[in-house]
């Protein structure tokens, strides 16, 4: 299996993205912002199709659009109801623009399928380099804001009273989420981004009692699901995204059973 370069690239890309998604996703679930992650993936689709229409690499359009959307969502502040309404509007506009771009560029159908459902076996060396850069920047940035992020997530009123800017923390975190979403779509696609970003993190929260344990468990779950999914896809010739999604659902279901038994 590893005698093929595309398989080596696939495992490397999936490893980078899975670890990033597991760690970032844990904080996303902890903060109750999974809907924001869903919206970012659709905004990324619009950016990718728009970039292709202009003759630019889709991944750069995806990164640019998700990053801009993440900053915009973070700037909305911490009021959940108003933020969710605004995110819903952003999501609708993004999908509409994506459809418009596809209307003008119908020859993009094959790449659109890869964007929607992922194509980890088609990751090039150039894309792998971009994923390494995204992963490194995202994890370093997350480590830098980890303390205020955790404080603002668990005790927002007290954090604000202590001088922590909830708006700034939200902007920085959702910007990191945007980069993670852009990376995830290269593996599982826009429609299945929750598979790596939310599934492993939710399973980890069901099982872990300590934050550090939960973060590393989420990363381990995501990594295992990604690598095992690629392996099963190689031997069965079924879509990689299907296997990763199925494994994610299986792990989450097992975590629910484990939580009930430990209660």
Automatic annotation (TrEMBL):
Keywords: Membrane, Transmembrane, Transmembrane helix, Transport. GO terms for biological process: response to zinc ion; transmembrane transport. It is found in: Cell membrane; Membrane. It is a multi-pass membrane protein. InterPro entries: ABC_BtuC-like, ABC_TroCD. Gene3D superfamilies: ABC transporter involved in vitamin B12 uptake, BtuC. Pfam families: ABC-3. One of its GO terms (cellular component) is ATP-binding cassette (ABC) transporter complex. The chain crosses the membrane at residues 6-30, 51-73, 85-105, 126-150, 170-203, 215-235, 241-258. It comes from the Bacteria. Its main location: membrane. PANTHER family: ABC-TRANSPORTER METAL-BINDING PROTEIN, IRON TRANSPORT SYSTEM MEMBRANE PROTEIN HI_0360-RELATED. Belongs to the ABC-3 integral membrane protein family. This is ABC 3 transport family protein. The lineage of its organism: Bacteria, Pseudomonadati, Pseudomonadota, Betaproteobacteria, Burkholderiales.
């Amino acid at each position: 299996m590893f005698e093929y370069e595309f398989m080596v690239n696939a495992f490397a890309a999936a490893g980078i993205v899975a670890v990033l998604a597991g760690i970032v996703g844990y904080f996303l679930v902890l903060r109750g912002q999974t809907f924001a992650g869903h919206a970012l993936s659709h905004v990324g689709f619009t950016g990718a199709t728009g970039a292709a229409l202009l003759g630019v690499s889709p991944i750069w359009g995806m990164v640019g659009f998700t990053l801009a959307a993440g900053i915009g969502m973070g700037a909305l502040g911490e009021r959940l109801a108003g933020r969710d309404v605004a995110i819903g509007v952003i999501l609708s506009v993004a999908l509409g623009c994506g459809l418009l771009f596809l209307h003008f560029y119908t020859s993009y159908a094959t790449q659109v399928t890869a964007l929607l459902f992922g194509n980890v076996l088609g990751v090039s060396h150039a894309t792998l380099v971009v994923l390494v850069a995204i992963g490194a920047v995202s994890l370093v940035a997350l480590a830098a804001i980890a303390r205020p992020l955790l404080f603002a997530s668990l005790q927002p009123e007290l954090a604000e009273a202590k001088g922590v800017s909830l708006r700034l923390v939200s902007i920085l975190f959702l910007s990191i989420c945007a980069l993670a979403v852009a990376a995830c779509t290269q593996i599982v696609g826009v429609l299945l981004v929750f598979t790596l970003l939310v599934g492993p993190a939710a399973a980890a929260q069901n099982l872990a009692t300590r934050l550090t344990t939960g973060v590393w468990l989420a990363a381990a779950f995501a990594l295992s699901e990604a690598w095992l999914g690629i392996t099963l896809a190689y031997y069965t010739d079924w879509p990689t995204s299907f296997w990763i999604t199925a494994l994610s659902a299986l792990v989450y279901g097992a975590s629910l059973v484990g939580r009930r038994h430990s209660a």
